[in-house]
């Protein structure tokens, strides 16, 4: 197990340094009510008092109930300022605008919400001289389980090197609310959605591969398939270079 007392000090020092060097006045992040946003918010608040979490319901019923309730509980426990921006009507308007002009498959519709959320976070950042903190973890990154230019966009990320297993360990060390440790990981893009069901493999298996290089054959096939298909998300933007 990692030394989370050291991790806490090192990561808050890192965040403080990033904010100071940028000349920003504060931090903004998306508070989804899940484990990753909770850890990001806790660390950012400890490093920079002027941290704001934005709750952004967008289409799914769960966004208005469990997700919002959990997000508010974490914010209250750690004294994080919170604002709510309802994006459901914006998502509906976007879908109506492009309907009939392209094939609105499920993956197209599902990726709209994360991109609208990031647009909203950067609006707050620009209006209030804030940096956008990322909330993605190492396990998701390896699987490509994030939306390009959505939750994959940010100015800095204090938890990007942590696997899901380590996120849970860190939250236990921080004495975070128990529901964060029991709640099935989910992007909350639609009701009943869970990360593991969509991927077809558990985070336990993914992390066992990343941390110990041990995983079953079938699980390895799924992990490597996801990784190969999503490499474009991890590479720098391709640009033309004159020979």
Notable features of this structure?
single chain, alpha/beta, 4-stranded parallel beta sheet, 13 helices, 56% helix, globular
Please explain how this structure is put together.
The protein is α/β, with parallel strands linked by helices. It has 13 helices and four strands. The longest helix has 23 residues, at 106-128. The mean pLDDT is 95.
Largest sheet: 4 strands, parallel
Range of strand content: 5-15%
CATH superfamily: HUPs
Number of helices: 13
What's the β-strand tally? 4
- Please state the structural category: alpha/beta
Uncertain runs are: none
The average pLDDT is 95
CATH topology description: Rossmann fold
Beginning-to-end CA distance, first to last residue: 49 Å
Q: Which class in CATH terms?
A: Alpha Beta
What order do the helices and strands follow? HEHEHHEHHEHHHHHHH
Which SSEs are present, and which pair or pack?
Layout: H1 4-22, E1 26-30, H2 35-47, E2 51-55, H3 61-64, H4 66-78, E3 81-84, H5 88-98, H6 106-128, E4 130-132, H7 138-143, H8 164-173, H9 179-182, H10 195-199, H11 203-212, H12 217-229, H13 231-234
Helix pairs in contact: 1-2, 2-4, 2-8, 5-6
Explain briefly what this protein structure is.
The protein has helices at residues 4-22, 35-47, 61-64, 66-78, 88-98, 106-128, 138-143, 164-173, 179-182, 195-199, 203-212, 217-229, 231-234, and strands at 26-30, 51-55, 81-84, 130-132.
């Amino acid at each position: 197990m990692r030394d989370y007392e050291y991790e806490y000090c090192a990561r808050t020092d890192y965040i403080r340094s990033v904010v100071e060097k940028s000349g920003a006045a504060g931090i903004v992040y998306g508070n989804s009510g899940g484990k990753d946003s909770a850890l990001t918010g806790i660390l950012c608040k400890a490093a920079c008092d002027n941290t704001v979490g934005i709750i952004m319901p967008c289409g799914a019923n769960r966004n208005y109930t469990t997700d919002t309730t959990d997000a508010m509980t974490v914010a209250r426990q750690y004294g994080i300022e919170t604002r709510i921006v309802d994006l459901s009507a914006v998502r509906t308007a976007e879908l109506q605008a492009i309907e009939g002009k392209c094939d609105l498959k499920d993956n197209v519709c599902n990726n709209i919400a994360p991109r609208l959320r990031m647009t909203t976070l950067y609006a707050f950042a620009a209006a209030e001289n804030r940096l956008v903190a990322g909330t993605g973890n190492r396990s998701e990154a390896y699987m490509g389980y994030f939306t390009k230019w959505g939750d994959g966009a940010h100015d800095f990320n204090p938890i990007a090197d942590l696997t899901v297993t380590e996120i849970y360990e860190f939250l236990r060390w921080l004495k975070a609310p128990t529901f964060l440790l029991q709640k099935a990981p989910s992007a909350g893009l639609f009701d009943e959605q869970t990360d593991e069901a969509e991927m077809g493999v558990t985070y336990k298996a993914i992390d066992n591969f990343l941390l110990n290089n041990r995983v079953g054959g079938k699980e390895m096939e799924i992990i490597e398939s996801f990784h190969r298909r999503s490499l474009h998300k991890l590479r720098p933007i391709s640009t033309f270079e004159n020979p």
